[in-house]
Every structure is written in C-alpha cells, then in structure tokens.
Amino acid sequence: MTTDLEIAAGVQVPATALAREATELIRDTTDELIYHHSRRVYFFGSLQGRGRDLSFDPELLYLGAMFHDVGLNEEFHGSGRRFEVDSAYEAKRFLQAHGVPEDSIRRVWTAIALHTTPGVPEFMEPEVALVTAGVEYDVLGIGYEDLSAEDREAIVALHPRPDFKRRILQAFTDGVRPKPRTTFGNVKADVLEHFVPGFERGDFVRTILDSRWAE
C-alpha cells in the first residue's frame, strides 16, 4: 500500500522489501540530515530522469540515492578511502547479502562511487546518471529550473532541508577531514580548503614535476 510517505511530486518510492530494508538501515545508521538528503536525491533524480525521457530502474536509483553518503559516517573516518568508495562498498555488501544480480550491484556501486565526479556519470547508465543528477540538484542547484516549484515544494515538504547548505558542508568536512589525501583531484578539496585551517590541497602539476622520473 502506498502512503503519503512513499510518494511525492508523482514519484513513488519502490514498494519492495529491498527498498524498505534499505530505508530502515539508512534511517538507523545516519542522521536526519543525510536521511532526508538521500531521499530527496531519489525524488529529484527521478524527476530529472522523467524530464530527460530516460528509462531507469527505480529500485536501483533508490538504492544508489539512499547509500550514496553513508561513507561520511564516523566508522569510515579511518578507512583511507574516498567516502564515495566507502559508500559504494556498503551498498554492495547490502545488495550481495540480499542476492541482487551482479550487474545491478555494479550499477549501484558505480552510481555512488562517481556521484561527485562531474562530466562522467551523465554519459553512463541512467541509474548512474540520475544519482548524480539528484545530488547536483539538491546540493548544487544544478538544473534548478528544470523542475516546477510545485514539485520542489512537495518534495521538500516531505523531506525538509532546514539550514541545509551549512549543515551539509559541515557533514562533508567532518567526513573527509580525517583523510585529507582522499580529496586529491576531486571537489572535496574545496571543502577542506574552506573549513580546515592548514589544509594544503594536492597539486597535480607539482605531483608530475616532483615525481621520481628524471624527465
């Protein structure tokens, strides 16, 4: 049965046992900031997919959206891996435990791992493209006018975003500060440069020039 908590702006959350278990897991293991953000990513990504006339698997998109930021949790602060990769592997473990086919797991893993790598996901499978589209819409406002004000308001009414800009930046800072080297070549270097005194971002040119190669 569909309830008001499972549909917004004409988009329905997949009514499957796998989606329900994923929802419960993310609600139990993340804070309300990440939970509501992850749900909005699904809704916004779905609407972007509809607007682009993309055929996608709603369940796979939902799973990618729900797991995409779990790698920011404190338990992963010492992993030494990019938080996106930690998130992707948590999703993979969950899906493997539920007997999901490997190709579906690959799509979800890729969608999560690449969601902060602009310029690539949009050319991949729809589920990969739309996790990034949902993230970019909710966090960066990319394509803001692509969706109607009514649809935006319906989704935000269901999953509010009070003080979201400041709070998500704080979550990024807290999740990435313990492993600053993982920001080399990606957008999270901008976050640490703004909010962590003494942080020095990696320099691609200097890395080449200072390598062990003589020429």
From TrEMBL:
SUPFAM superfamilies noted in UniProt: HD-domain/PDEase-like
InterPro entries from the UniProt entry: HD/PDEase_dom (IPR003607), HD_domain (IPR006674)
Pfam families the record matches: HD
Listed name of the protein: Uncharacterized protein
Provenance organism: Streptomyces malaysiensis
